[in-house]
Specification:
Alpha/beta knot, 5 strands, globular, 41% helix, 5 helices, alpha/beta
Length: 161
């Protein structure tokens, strides 16, 4: 069974988001071994300058490093400049990983300031959900739903209409 890690900076603060995450975690349990890894957000002042943001992203990137094993993992950074793809294409991408021998797929969600450039250079794919802006914490729920949808597409379910 393929392992999917969602490596994210920060915790879900709202109960309704935690409930949604739990629901998708339950749904995905029949398709993959899902692990959500919540990394600590770097402490920043309320109005951080560029240097402070850069240091925070570097620290968060260093915390992500231990999970980005280049050998057997396929690493996907969720970032605004990434490639957009349909749900069907994401499904094929996940299938391709399993066939090619990648036993683990890491989806990386940075902080509201993004992901460190050094970390982005180590990934196999940069993926963007949309050109629109969404609340940062909603990104995890949207990603979980799309991963679930991808597995449903793979098995030919009616979930994906």
């Amino acid at each position: 069974m393929i392992r999917i890690n969602i490596i994210c900076v920060g915790k879900l603060k709202e109960k309704y988001l935690r409930d949604a995450s739990a629901e998708y975690e339950k749904r995905l349990s029949g398709f993959c071994k899902l692990n959500i890894i919540e990394l600590s957000e770097a402490k920043l002042p309320s109005e951080p300058n560029d240097s402070e943001i850069s240091k925070a992203l570097t620290a968060e990137g260093e915390a992500m490093e231990q999970y980005l094993d280049a050998g057997s993992c396929y690493n996907i950074a969720m970032c605004i400049e990434g490639k957009q793809m349909t749900s069907e294409k994401l499904s094929k991408e996940i299938e391709k990983c399993g066939i090619s021998g990648s036993s683990t797929i890491n989806f990386i969600i940075g902080s509201s300031f993004g992901i460190d450039e050094k970390t982005k250079k180590k990934v196999d794919l940069k993926l963007s959900m949309s050109e629109m802006t969404f609340p940062h914490q909603l990104a995890r729920i949207m990603l979980l739903e799309q991963i679930y949808r991808a597995f449903q597409i793979s098995v030919g379910s009616r979930y994906h209409k």
